UniProtKB/TrEMBL annotation:
Keywords: Transferase. Pfam families: ABM, Acetyltransf_1. This is GNAT family N-acetyltransferase. The lineage of its organism: Bacteria, Pseudomonadati, Pseudomonadota, Alphaproteobacteria, Rhodobacterales. It comes from the Bacteria. Residues 117-258 form the N-acetyltransferase domain. One of its GO terms (molecular function) is acyltransferase activity, transferring groups other than amino-acyl groups. CDD domains: NAT_SF (cd04301). It comes from Paracoccus liaowanqingii.
């Protein structure tokens, strides 16, 4: 099955993890579309592909799976939206769409509930979904390539994701730094655009710092964002020295750090 990002999710996704409190929870729907005659089934076969594609293209839609079951008159449906507002936008668009107009007579048997994200380590089954997530979050493939290289070269010391019902929605990575003492680099940090500025990035950063233990962690990014997680400007020798280079913990002032080779790959 595919989510809004277009990636494939196995039927038995890993839904374990530690909860992340959000002021606005995500919204999920699970249920069935039931046709009562052949005409309704043909309508579903004709119009559902476009409806599925348009739903997945909505900025606040994180997952939209609708599949014909073993009973050809019944479709199973799984939806995930960023919040109530995103779901309301979806309903408004659907009502006015050709699918919404033509499918009024179909029986809808849905259960709607709120979803709180969970944080857990990445698993092999997450790799493709994380690749898509990072590409969407940054609007380019560079960070997805960086994560793949860190993993392939054995330099992915910590890789944590936040997920909603198995769908990755945010991610953080730690990799080893060459420094005066054991240290780590925090990058990349990615949050799905529909869920940014809601605390997921801060929660993942806190989880990564906890995993780092007493090892200093260096990152490159918005000083205001990382200051809220306990980072301070870093006085270190690096190709990326400057206001954006920050540290949690301590290394000798002026000492040199070297990131993993994946950061220097073309």
């Amino acid at each position: 099955m595919s989510c809004a990002c277009g990636h494939h999710h196995p039927a038995q996704a890993d839904v374990s993890g530690r909860p992340v409190p959000l002021a606005r929870p995500l919204v999920a729907l699970h249920g069935r579309l039931i046709c009562t005659d052949m005409s309704q089934m043909l309508t579903a076969l004709d119009l559902l592909p476009d409806h599925r594609a348009l739903s997945r293209a909505e900025p606040g839609c994180l997952r939209f799976d609708v599949e014909q079951s073993e009973d050809p008159m019944v479709w199973t449906l799984t939806e995930l939206f960023a919040d109530d507002a995103a779901f309301a936008t979806h309903q408004t668009r659907t009502t006015a769409s050709p699918w919404g107009q033509a499918s009024r007579a179909l029986t809808r048997d849905f259960h709607r509930h709120e979803v709180r994200p969970l944080i857990r380590p990445e698993a092999p089954g997450d790799h493709k979904a994380l690749d898509r997530l990072l590409t969407i979050a940054f609007g380019r493939p560079d960070e997805a390539r960086l994560l793949r290289r860190l993993r392939a070269e054995g330099d992915l010391a910590v890789s944590l994701l936040a997920h909603a019902e198995g769908v990755p929605i945010a991610h953080v990575a730690l990799s080893p730094l060459q420094a005066e003492r054991p240290a780590l680099a925090l990058a990349p940090l990615a949050v799905h655009p529909a869920l940014q500025r809601r605390g997921l990035g801060r929660a993942l950063t806190a989880a990564a710092l906890a995993a780092a233990g007493d090892r200093p962690v260096v990152t490159l990014g918005d000083p205001e964002l990382y200051a809220g997680c306990g980072f301070v400007p870093a006085d270190l020798a690096s190709p990326w020295s400057g206001p954006a280079l920050q540290i949690h913990g301590a290394l000798p002032p002026g000492s040199r750090i070297t990131h993993a080779p994946a950061f220097h790959a073309p």
